[in-house]
Amino acid sequence: MGADPRRAAERIGAFLPSLPAAVRRYAQSEIYRHLHETGPGPYQGGAIDTALAAVGAALGEPAAPLKAAAE
């Protein structure tokens, strides 16, 4: 069975509220940019985790909110 096409949107949607409102739109576009670079969706959990971690690290976010968003 393949990846659920809603999974990335749900996990990104859970992650974004942990960020300041001023950077949420930027973070969302950067996460999807990372995902699109991996190829067409639906995206596997590992690709989503990597994209969330990369953008979170770039924004200086601690790992705990990223881990919570990934679950």
Brief sketch in words of this structure:
68% of the residues lie in helices and 0% in strands. The protein has 71 residues and is mainly alpha-helical. It has one domain (7-70).
Strand tally, please? 0
- Percentage of residues assigned to helices: 55-70%
Name the shape in a single word.
globular
Q: What is the CA-CA span between the terminal residues?
A: 19 Å
Low-confidence segments, given as residue ranges, are: none
Question: What percentage of amino acids are in beta strands?
Answer: under 5%
Number of distinct helices = 4
Structure write-up:
This protein is an all-alpha fold. 68% of the residues lie in helices and 0% in strands. The chain has one domain (7-70). Helix 1 packs antiparallel against helix 4, helix 2 (21-37) crosses helix 3 and helix 3 packs antiparallel against helix 4.
Question: Could you list some keywords that capture this structure?
Answer:
single chain
